[in-house]
Amino acid sequence: GENVEQHPSTLSVQEGDSAVIKCTYSDSASNYFPWYKQELGKGPQLIIDIRSNVGEKKDQRIAVTLNKTAKHFSLHITETQPEDSAVYFCAASRGNTGNQFYFGTGTSLTVIP
Amino acid sequence: DGGITQSPKYLFRKEGQNVTLSCEQNLNHDAMYWYRQDPGQGLRLIYYSQIVNDFQKGDIAEGYSVSREKKESFPLTVTSAQKNPTAFYLCASSIVGVGEQFFGPGTRLTVL
After folding, report:
1. What's the CA gap between A9 and B39, in Å, rounded?
2. Angstrom distance (rounded) from CA A82 to CA B7
3. Which of A13, B17, B54, B78 is the most interior residue, by most CB within 10 Å?
4. Which of residues 3 through 42 in chain A touch B, CB cutoff 8 A?
5. Is A66 on the interface with B (CB under 8 A)?
6. How many CB atoms within 10 Å of residue B8?
7. Strand pairing partners for B5?
């Protein structure tokens, strides 16, 4: 069935370095791609999202890129800080509903001071 | 403050008992959702509702039930038919047709 694959499952970087998390999706009708950050014991929080009519979006140290042809999208975090340590989930909308998602399995990011 | 609340944060139950998890939102959202999260897995949709008095099954609805009698509230009952109920349960809400979902803090259910 339709799904989202996310890699890597764990990622460790030195403070100040960049981190990249990649996702692929299979539903060609997906048109909305959010990224969520989840801290231990808490609910996920949206950090950035992108719609299918845009190839790249940036918000300070965070950027997301989307390649619709290849069905790939990626999260880029620059100048990482210890407070960036968390689990990050990508998601893709189911068809064009916008309200239901396929979620990736998560990437546990550790930023080493 | 606007947001979603879930209670309790931790819940322990004996095997064979039904248990109800609470979810309340004051964001005036029409759509609400319940997800289950297990270690190393993504969020899996249990049930969702886009309007009061209506709800649909998600991917893993077996052993669960919901109600939506008020716009603000979407309680989830984990029944004794759920074979492996120990998990972290997340409630979310959104405006129908708009992508972003807002999540509550979650309830960790442990069945002993």
Report:
1. 12
2. 30
3. B78
4. 4, 6, 9, 32, 34, 36, 41-42
5. no
6. 11
7. B24
